[in-house]
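Open question from group meeting: does this chain pack into something compact, or does most of it stay loose? Before anyone orders reagents, we agreed to write out a predicted structure and look at it together. Recording both the input and the output here so the notebook holds the full record.
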Amino acid sequence: MDRRHLLSVAVCLLGLSTISLAQPSERFSTSPPKITKQSPSYFVVLPKQPVSIECEASGTPAPGYYWKKDGAVLSMTGLYSMDGGNLVVRRPSELTNGIYRCFANNTYGTAMSEKIEFVIAFADGFKDSESTTFTFDEGQLATIPCNQKESVPAPSVFWTDDANPGNKIPLDNRVSIDPDFNLRFSNIRVSDTGNYQCNVKNDKLRVQLLSPIKEIVVRSVENVEGRPATLVYTPPASVEAFRTEKLRLKCIAEGFPTPTITWNKEGETLPEDRTSYESYGQELVISDVVQTDVGSYKCTAENGAGTPTSFTTTVTVQSTPYWQNKPEDTNVVINDRGVLDCEAEGIPVPRVTWLVNGVPSTDIAPNPRRTITEGVGGGRVEIRDAITEDSAVFMCVATNEHGEIFASGFLNVESRPAEMTDAPKRNEITIEGKGFELTCAGQGSPKPVITWTFQNNPISDTDPKYSIVEDGNTASTTSTLTVSGVSIADGGDYKCVIENGFGSVMATSTVTVRRGTTIIVGPGDEVFVEEGLEVVIECEVDHDETLEPTVTWYRDTGAGQEQLDLSLPGGRFRRARTGSDSLKVLNTVVEDTGTYECRAVTSEDEASASTQLVVQTAPSAPSAPIVTQRSDVSDTMVALSWTSGGDGNARITEYIISFETNFDDLGWQVIDTVSAPSTQASLDLSPWVTYHFRVVAVNDIGQSPPSPLSESYSTNPAALTEAPENVKLDATDPGKMRVTWPEVHPYDQNGPEFKYIIKWREPGDQAWMGNEEIIEYEVTEYEIDVGEMYKELEVQVLYSNSLGPGPASDWSGFTGEGTPTQAPQNVEVNAEDSSTVVITWDEVPDSTVNGQLQSFLVYYSMIEVQAQGQSPAECFPNTDCRVQNLTPFQSYEFQVAVRNGQHVGPKSTPVTVKMPQGESGPVYELTAFPLSDRIVVKWGKPASPNGVITGYHLNISSYDNNNRLGNQTVVPISDAETTTYEVNPAEPDTNYYIVVHAVNGYGLGKFDTVEPKTRPAGAPVKPIVAESQIAPGKKYINVTFVQKDDGPAANQFYVQYKEANKEDAELKTTPPLDLLKGSMITVPDLQPGTEYLVTVVAANDDGETIGDEQTTKTIGGATQAASPIFVQGWFIVVLIVIVALLCILLVLCILKSQRGGKYNVSDKEQQRKGDIESTPLKDEGGFEEFEPRKDNPDGELPRGSQGSLRDSEPGSSDTDSLKEYADGELGKFNEEGSFIGQYGDKKQRPTEDTDQSGAAYSTFV
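Structure tokens returned:
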């Protein structure tokens, strides 16, 4: 066969296999029988009427049926016949009573129904046939027997009498029916006389039987004696309750009066949710019994006529069997394993046995593949290596002493390839955001498994996007895939795969997802607006480009939803913007409050969003308040009540209660604020006032209009109950005292004829020296004059009205004092230390104080300073008098004066004292300038020397990166004028710690520190010369050296130069300049208008480094053809003006430089404290600060000025070194002097002397 033929055969075989896979299997499924319907287990029927006992079963092939009665197979003749699976009983009688079971069988097993007890209904009537008379004395216990016979089904029993024929007699705790249906009276009454009958009603037979008449005759008793309660019916001493059923316990008592029955559980509380009481408390009912209901239950009867009586019954909980796990129908494939489990519970725990095809497991032939387990609580059937013949119906039977239960499950052994019975739609279209369902169904044996894929990727129902729900039976299954919240990415091919161990089939559905219509900017939950304003409710719609939405607005303000017309001319509802779907509401009113919905509708879907628009306004006015008196004792205690108006759609937060009175000057006054929702208040009013009240409601928008006024309410006068407070007694002139008190407005006077009463007397006196009455309530002070200075008085102030004076307010004070007449004598002042003095004087006679001695005032001032303005020190009697914080080494003048409570006496004779020397302040502006091998330290004299400075003390040490100090060097300087020190040599690239003290007669002063770091060792880094560092003049060039911030530092530099355009030009060199003395070299004697090559050479002890060559040109050149500018008139005028201005400037500078002693040093120090740290080091003049000033060759500072304070002011400069080159371009540079400021590490310590006045004159020593 050639290759083409082989290919054709292969294609045909493949097609056939595909067709067979897609076609349903022609093999029918098989299964053992299963009972699907049967009559109830207790089946009561009417006699002689044909009845059918139901039985239906499923199974493949269809099962056949047969019945057993009392264990014997029924013959279908005579009384019985079959109708399908149902058993027809043609003429039920007592002969047909019994236990029936239905059996359904086919090739694969036999199923058996549960037991059905078949009973004929009957009612036998009563045991007695004659009427009976029962005679009782009034108040006795009476029991009337029913004497009913048996009835099936259980009848309903009740009693009737001839007073109300046909109606049940009313029952209560006196008249009751016991569980044996006897009628009981706990104490019979004469009114109970009559004819009674017991009624037995059989609903199945539809008959009601009446007992013979029970006549009750009650003899009247004149006085019925009380009889204690006695229990005449109780439950057994031990009662079994059954799980999930109801527990009923009943007690009936007799006695007079009628007893009441109560129930309780000993040691526990009764379960409230399951406990109820019937028969007027006689019967305790506990529903849905659980194990915890075991225990002792006690009923107690009492009627107040004696000791209560009780009875206790013990309850145990039992249970008929119930299922924990029933066997389930199981399909297995050949050679597979099948298991049926059965578990049951009960009290006691039931025993589980198995029936196989209706036959006890002990009576069937053994099967090596089958294992049956039976026992207490559970059992199992297990089949291994199953074959078709192992198919059977297994019934699990659970039995205990209270009953038995049955449950069946079959084990079906079959094999069938998976096949598809329902495929998903080939094409599905949905909208983004929605969901779709795909359903796929199949069958096979074993039961097939359905899986889903999307774009060939498995789908798991653990993904929240997907939900897979399966349904079916033992042989078929249906799987529904639900995809929720779909997006565009969810479009594609979804495949359903159905498979079991014998085959698989597949179907594909293509899903197209269109973008859904959504509201991407919604209106939100609530929108609030104040009435009268406009509001915009946002709505922005997003939709698929193929779908055009129509956006409509609806609202519901309470009368139903209505559509809004946004195109109505002049309407209040319109679109917020052109092309916008948002809604704008103009001139909102409260009636606009409601639900607003934005709805976008397309041909495929719709979207909507809604919000609650709340238009808010101020509340409506409350009703007029009603005033009622709260107390009969006092008419000032009232209650106010009102009714709220509308809240304006904003919750009312409070009510403001105000009042007006007959006193016009008070106007409206707020008396109380009440938090909503309360609409009442309790008020305490003032006597002798007429009131009107009003109420204002408040919400977040504002206040309501005031309510209408209440009716007027007047209070009666009352006695004053409060003593005056805040009374002040002030001593005024000698011998006088002013009494002041708060004004009492008429509102608070409690009645007419109001006045103030002021009384005074000496302490200890019974009689008052004075008594003053003031009737003008605006007058609130009175001056008492007793003519005696510093006289103690007792003062009493009272309020009084027409009902008499109120309680008194008692106070005491002194009259005015005079001025002390004598200054302290023999004042002595002794220095205790450099800043403290002790002052003493003779005792001052009391007669000269003219009042109460309070203290002594010490006046002191520095002698050298005028108008210091210090406050005097204050010393108190019987204590040492010290004045502290004085400036050391200064002369002070002291005076002492006496002070009483009001006046200060004359000062004593001045006493002068000179303070000893004290600790000096820190040196001024301590600064360090480090190079690679040396450090220059500079400072100024202390601003607060506090004595005569005799020298300085330096402590110099290095430290490493861990802050560990190395060797220390102590340098004493005995010359007070030496304020620099050079550390030479110094270690390169090393941190130093330098401490400097000033020294005076006291010793070492306060220290200051500086921490410089030297530059690394080695030849200097290559100098960089920028254009700004070279400044040519007419016959010179200024070259400024700028030290780099890192690397080895230069100690000096020099300049090499020659003419640029002469080949044989000589290379010249300037003398080197020490960089500690300056940073600019002037190259002299050059030709005007000539180009020069300039090179800067940096040097130190380790070598030299040559910088790059620079070209520059001096100023000047060829003679101009025009007239020289200096001969033109306008130039001469300008030159004269410039010279005049320079002269004025020079005079001002000279005057400023001579201001040294004309300002307060401490003021200057205070000014410097804030900015001294930020002041840059002076860049000009090298280290000229170390040199004596030209106007002070001895190096002394001018008196009254600080060390180099003037020279260090920002913006100052010294241009002496440029004077001879004034015709150059000097404005280009500002670094004529030393570059030391580039490396300076200076620290300024503020003066620590706390006495400003002392510090201010610390330089005048």
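Observations to bring back to the group:
The helical segments are 3-22, 1129-1153, 1161-1171, 1252-1255.
The longest helix spans residues 1129-1153.
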